[in-house]
């Protein structure tokens, strides 16, 4: 075999090249321009074809709505059993005394009020009393029992891997840059994820997190935190983990953070400030407003009531429930509330937007859930809830064109209708069906069914199978598509609300369609938000599979809520009983108490 290229060959080649170049230059300028454009177009088309192939299994015809029959391919339940090994239960373990009721503050013991006896109380005393009083069994996690639950547990482990490696003990993982973000500086993701791990039966991971709580968690920090977020994520997460495990460590920590949040209630009206310094107890309104958000002041009651009920100290529940009682007396529009409230006057800011989305959403959720938590005999809670849902149906519910999707819009300045719906509103189906279970009218169930379908369409009608943060709905005849996504609203933050509602819908109806919808959405997250090295990221654009543009953030609620609801949705035995627990706004289960 010979291999030789002669000098003359090379010369010949370079001559050809040169003459081609000359030919090219001789072409008219315009023609050259056109050829370059054509080449670029060809290249882009190739990329497009490639991307279309990649998304083929999920791709839905954009102009047409997804028919539920097209995608209901999975049949549940599947008889595939795979339990985690049931090794020994988590043992309650007492830690050294942590003094929690203020520094050496003299206060009454809860059970000797009449004698006015004062004594220094530590969380350990409280915990001792409680543990002596009742014997509640820890929650028994079955572990994943089918391939769907297993896939969710794998997703959790993948998210946890990133958090553990790059953000351990910090608030949030930034998975793309392999770093972290601190909001409050209290290990938010770790605390939010505790009960998820426990419910999933991830014992090893749970133990490691418990060690961190026992040895590293420190609430005595000079840091301003948001009262509401800290209540639902941290206080709620610690309390629910305490109830599930009966491990007193979590109760001690819950009492500690609960006490540090209490100064917020010291306002003229009792309506709490939005922010508090964990160390000094200094409180203030948000930097951008003098008012507090209505949703924030009305979404703390489940947690503070539970803290009172487990400790026997009534002040938490009294302070928090005072806010609900006060809101009850304020004038509303058909039971609907505005977004802001003044902490001095205790009055609503008039002419602010009426919405079921950000800044008002969970007011409605906690009306119903407080009624359930207290054994369903505080009648005005139920009445306010029913009036509000009537108000929603009358003022906010509309149908889009051409496919009649039912959605919940907003009243700008309390008057002008806007066909805009936050993804946050998708919690409403879950709340409605929960209410229906406890005797609300069938119209509530109907609205829940229609709305969850719309929320599903918000996912199914994008090329990524992920919902935008905000959708606008078409009310005019001429447009072809029901859902309009604006560029500013096209991001996805890994939010839980639709999955949450799918779980509630499935829990009460046992309609398998909801599980197959959940599975489709789960795959959207897997495909477009998973970061190889660990973690999942929020993305900027759900419309373009090739350019989702990661935002490099994994919020604590992805582990605390989204993955927990996926896991529960795919559970065949419905292990978390809604007759026993009421779930707070951050997916943390708290016990239902009987009426008193
Ligand atoms: C509380 O009161 C009870 C009787 O009401 C009494 O037996 C008990 O010793 C008191 N506890 C304390 C700490 O004083
Ligand atoms: C299940 O839910 C889907 C979607 O709402 C609905 O179309 C279907 O009729 C339901 N199936 C049953 C058996 O109720
Ligand atoms: C709730 O029920 C209990 C007894 O079942 C009763 O004593 C109490 O007064 C009731 N509370 C209200 C607000 O109706």
From TrEMBL:
Cofactor(s) the protein requires to work: Ca(2+)
TM segment ranges: 30-53
Catalysed reaction equations from the record: N(4)-(alpha-D-Man-(1->2)-alpha-D-Man-(1->2)-alpha-D-Man-(1->3)-[alpha-D-Man-(1->3)-[alpha-D-Man-(1->2)-alpha-D-Man-(1->6)]-alpha-D-Man-(1->6)]-beta-D-Man-(1->4)-beta-D-GlcNAc-(1->4)-beta-D-GlcNAc)-L-asparaginyl-[protein] (N-glucan mannose isomer 8A1,2,3B1,3) + 3 H2O = N(4)-(alpha-D-Man-(1->3)-[alpha-D-Man-(1->3)-[alpha-D-Man-(1->6)]-alpha-D-Man-(1->6)]-beta-D-Man-(1->4)-beta-D-GlcNAc-(1->4)-beta-D-GlcNAc)-L-asparaginyl-[protein] (N-glucan mannose isomer 5A1,2) + 3 beta-D-mannose; N(4)-(alpha-D-Man-(1->2)-alpha-D-Man-(1->2)-alpha-D-Man-(1->3)-[alpha-D-Man-(1->2)-alpha-D-Man-(1->3)-[alpha-D-Man-(1->2)-alpha-D-Man-(1->6)]-alpha-D-Man-(1->6)]-beta-D-Man-(1->4)-beta-D-GlcNAc-(1->4)-beta-D-GlcNAc)-L-asparaginyl-[protein] (N-glucan mannose isomer 9A1,2,3B1,2,3) + 4 H2O = N(4)-(alpha-D-Man-(1->3)-[alpha-D-Man-(1->3)-[alpha-D-Man-(1->6)]-alpha-D-Man-(1->6)]-beta-D-Man-(1->4)-beta-D-GlcNAc-(1->4)-beta-D-GlcNAc)-L-asparaginyl-[protein] (N-glucan mannose isomer 5A1,2) + 4 beta-D-mannose
Pfam families found in the cross-reference section: Glyco_hydro_47
Pathway(s) annotated for this protein in UniProt: Protein modification; protein glycosylation
Coiled coil regions, renumbered to chain: none
Top-level taxonomic group: Eukaryota
Enzyme Commission number, as recorded: 3.2.1.-
Keyword tags: Calcium, Disulfide bond, Glycosidase, Hydrolase, Membrane, Metal-binding, Transmembrane, Transmembrane helix
PANTHER family membership: ENDOPLASMIC RETICULUM MANNOSYL-OLIGOSACCHARIDE 1,2-ALPHA-MANNOSIDASE, MANNOSYL-OLIGOSACCHARIDE ALPHA-1,2-MANNOSIDASE-RELATED
Similarity-based family: Belongs to the glycosyl hydrolase 47 family.
Name the UniProt record assigns to this protein: alpha-1,2-Mannosidase
Source organism of the structure: Limulus polyphemus (Atlantic horseshoe crab)
Lineage of origin: Eukaryota, Metazoa, Ecdysozoa, Arthropoda, Chelicerata
């Amino acid at each position: 075999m010979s291999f030789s290229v002669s000098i003359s060959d090379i010369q010949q080649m370079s001559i050809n090249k040169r003459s081609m170049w000359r030919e090219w230059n001789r072409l008219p300028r315009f023609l050259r321009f056109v050829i370059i454009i054509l080449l670029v177009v060809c290249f882009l088309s190739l990329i497009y074809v490639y991307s279309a192939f990649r998304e083929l299994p999920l791709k839905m015809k954009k102009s047409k709505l997804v028919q539920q029959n097209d995608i209901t391919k999975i049949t549940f339940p599947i008889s595939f059993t795979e339990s985690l090994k049931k090794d020994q239960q988590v043992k309650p373990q007492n830690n050294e005394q942590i003094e929690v009721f203020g520094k050496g503050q003299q206060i009454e013991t809860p059970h000797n009020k009449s004698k006015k006896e004062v004594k220094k109380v530590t969380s350990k005393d409280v915990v001792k009393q409680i543990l002596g009083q009742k014997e509640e069994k820890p929650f028994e996690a079955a572990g994943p029992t089918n391939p769907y639950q297993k896939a969710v547990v794998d997703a959790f482990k993948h998210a946890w891997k990133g958090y553990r490696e790059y953000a351990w003990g910090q608030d949030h993982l930034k998975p793309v840059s392999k770093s972290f973000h601190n909001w409050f500086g209290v290990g938010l993701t770790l605390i939010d994820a505790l009960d998820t791990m426990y419910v999933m039966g991830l014992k090893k991971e749970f133990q490691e997190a418990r060690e961190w709580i026992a040895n590293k968690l420190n609430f005595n920090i000079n840091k301003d935190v948001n009262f509401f977020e800290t209540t639902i994520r941290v206080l709620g997460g610690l309390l629910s983990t305490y109830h599930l495990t009966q491990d007193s460590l979590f109760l001690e920590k819950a009492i500690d953070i609960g006490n540090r949040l209490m100064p917020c209630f010291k306002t003229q009206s009792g309506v709490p400030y939005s922010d508090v310094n964990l160390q000094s107890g200094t409180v203030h309104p948000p930097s951008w407003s003098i008012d507090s958000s209505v949703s924030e002041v009305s979404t703390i009651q489940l947690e503070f009531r539970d803290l009172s009920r487990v400790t026997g100290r009534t002040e938490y529940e009294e302070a928090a429930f005072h806010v609900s009682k006060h809101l009850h007396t304020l004038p509303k529009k058909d039971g609907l509330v505005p977004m802001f409230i003044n902490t001095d006057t205790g009055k609503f800011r008039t002419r602010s937007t009426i919405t079921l989305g950000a800044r008002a959403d969970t007011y409605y959720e906690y009306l119903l859930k407080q009624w359930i938590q207290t054994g369903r005999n505080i009648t005005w809670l139920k009445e306010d809830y029913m009036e509000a849902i009537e108000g929603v149906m009358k003022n906010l519910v509309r149908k889009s064109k051409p496919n009649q999707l039912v959605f919940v819009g907003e009243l700008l300045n309390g008057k002008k209708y806007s066909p805009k719906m936050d993804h946050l509103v998708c919690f409403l189906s879950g709340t409605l069906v929960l209410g229906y279970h406890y005797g609300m009218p069938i119209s509530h169930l109907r609205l829940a069914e229609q709305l969850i379908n719309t929320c599903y369409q918000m996912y199914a009608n994008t090329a990524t199978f992920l919902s935008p943060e905000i959708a606008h709905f078409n009310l005019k005849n001429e447009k072809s598509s029901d859902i309009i996504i604006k560029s500013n609203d096209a991001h996805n933050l890994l939010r839980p609300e639709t999955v949450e509602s799918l779980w509630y819908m499935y829990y009460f109806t046992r309609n398998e369609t909801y599980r197959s919808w959940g599975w489709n959405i789960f795959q959207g997250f897997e495909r477009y938000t998973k970061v190889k090295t660990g973690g999942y990221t929020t993305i900027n654009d759900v419309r373009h599979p090739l350019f989702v543009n990661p935002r490099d953030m994994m919020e604590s609620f992805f582990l605390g809520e989204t993955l927990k609801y996926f896991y529960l949705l795919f559970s065949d035995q419905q292990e978390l009983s809604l007759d026993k627990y009421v779930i707070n706004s951050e997916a943390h289960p708290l016990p239902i108490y009987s009426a008193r």
